[in-house]
Amino acid sequence: MEKTIAIAIDGPAGAGKSSLARTVANRLDYIYVDTGALYRTIGLAFMRNGIGTDINCDIDEQLSKINIDIKFIDGVQHVFLNGEDVSEEIRTPNASMMASAVSALPAVRAFLLDMQREFAEKYNVIMDGRDIGTVVLPDAQVKIFLTASDEERANRRFKELKEKGSNVTYEEVLADMRERDYNDSHRAIAPLKPASDSAIADTTGLTIEESIELLMKIIKEKV
Ligand code: DC
Description:
Elements: E1 6-10, H1 17-28, E2 31-34, H2 36-48, H3 59-64, E3 68-73, E4 76-81, E5 84-85, H4 93-102, H5 106-122, E6 125-129, H6 132-136, E7 142-147, H7 150-163, H8 170-186, E8 199-202, H9 208-222
Helix pairs in contact: 1-9, 2-4, 4-8, 7-8
The structure holds 2'-deoxycytidine-5'-monophosphate (DC).
């Protein structure tokens, strides 16, 4: 089988990973895999079973009831929880917090690991998350750590949520984001951090087009 190419993009919440990765994947004709959606789906399944962010439950029993599928519909990733398309429902602020909570559980990370690696074995991928370059695809040809200032990231998220009709405040979004970043980068297993061989891309003050150009430049140097 021909060797596939993997581009790993990691970084904190709201750094623009998914929108930039999706655009770059289109330009390169790669598959874009949003791994955060997988953690969000597990978080949603737990939430629906009445479990809170303290995760007071039998984790293996919960996981045994979960079947996750990813399908690409018109090039867009959809995620299915036991056959139901939950791609929209996993985007709420509560689902974000719950995703961060379940993502600290070793059993949850193990549950999702093979699924992520299988994509990279089959297709040329741009995969985004928190531990893609460090744990999931340590041999990725390109590793990018995408970041931007807290305020700019919160502002982008705030605008997105407002457009969807949410009535959250900017301060709430900033506080939630900082809490999530803290959890994600301080957990014991696969914490958010740049891989030692990653290129750091800081998009503070850059337009979307400028950010895309920055990523394309990094990728072209390596692939
Ligand atoms: O990228 P996102 O905001 O959709 O991710 C939701 C949560 O999932 C995030 O707070 C941490 C977790 N996550 C993770 O631990 N590892 C990944 N590869 C992707 C996401």
